[in-house]
UniProtKB/TrEMBL annotation:
One of its GO terms (cellular component) is endoplasmic reticulum membrane. It comes from Trapa natans (Water chestnut). It is a multi-pass membrane protein. InterPro entries: Reticulon (IPR003388), Reticulon-like (IPR045064). This is Reticulon-like protein. Coiled coil: none annotated. It is found in: Endoplasmic reticulum membrane. The chain crosses the membrane at residues 70-86, 93-114, 165-195. Residues 60-245 form the Reticulon domain. GO terms for biological process: response to bacterium. The keyword Secreted does not apply. It holds the Pfam family Reticulon.
């Protein structure tokens, strides 16, 4: 009798432990659901990394996303000053360089010769030289980016992706129209200000922007599907040659 009660008590304890573990497993599944939902959230341009990683990380991304406000404000201020000098005041680059060198040489010359009248040693002018390694790194990165752009343009021109071809043509056409409105310096300044304002604003409000962008992309895909059905699908195309591996 006592053994029967002990076995009944053990079975009761096993049922309780199973319920507890079952509750834990259900809670674990409930915990997994939000993570799965987070993974399915639409992000602009299909990105999976934070905005800081999209811009390459490091100091350039810190400047664009205003991690260091003094450096970001300084860069934007310098760009604004250059644009005001060359665009609004119609200053020329060669004139600015010559005037800057004249002013610098005059100050250093007067400072060096003025110390002889006050019995002080002349100031030590440090040697200024351009470091080789950063210049080579910049040229190497620029070469890689240009080669990548040329490769992408070649792939688009081969006609393998009609959608990408039309997107590039439309982008170049819009850029040509914008270029007719302003010169290169103004366009460069607009892009510079755009890069220093839009990414940081998007990073702060990405939870509101991404749903709107998702709706916009769905609508664009619908319109493209209609355009493809009515026009693009009726354009005769030659057979594409297989790629040689």
């Amino acid at each position: 009798m006592a053994e029967h009660e002990e076995t009944k008590g053990e079975s009761l304890m096993e049922m309780i432990t199973e319920k507890i573990h079952g509750g834990d497993s259900s809670s674990d599944s409930e915990d997994e659901k939000p993570s799965e939902l987070k993974a399915k959230i639409y992000r602009l341009f299909g990105r999976e990394k934070p905005v800081h990683h999209v811009f390459g990380g490091g100091k350039p991304a810190d400047v664009l996303l205003w991690r260091n406000k003094k450096i970001s404000a300084g860069a934007l201020g310098v760009a604004t000053a250059i644009w005001v000098l060359f665009e609004l005041m119609e200053y020329h680059l060669l004139t600015l360089v010559c005037h800057g060198l004249i002013l610098t040489l005059a100050i250093v010359f007067l400072w060096s010769n003025g110390t002889t009248f006050i019995n002080k040693s002349p100031p030590r002018i440090p040697k200024v030289s351009m470091p080789e390694q950063p210049v080579l790194q910049f040229v190497s990165v620029l070469r890689l980016e240009i080669n990548h752009a040329l490769f992408v343009l070649r792939e688009i021109a081969m006609g393998r992706d009609l959608k990408k071809f039309l997107a590039v043509i439309a982008s170049l056409w819009v850029l040509s129209i914008v270029g007719s409105w302003c010169n290169f310096l103004t366009l460069f300044y607009i892009v510079f200000v755009f890069l220093h304002t839009v990414p940081v604003l998007y990073e702060k409000h990405e939870d509101k922007v991404d749903p709107l962008a998702e709706k916009l992309m769905i609508e664009i895909k619908k319109q493209y599907a209609v355009f493809d059905e009515k026009l693009l699908s009726k354009i005769p195309r030659g057979p594409l040659k297989d790629k040689k591996h």
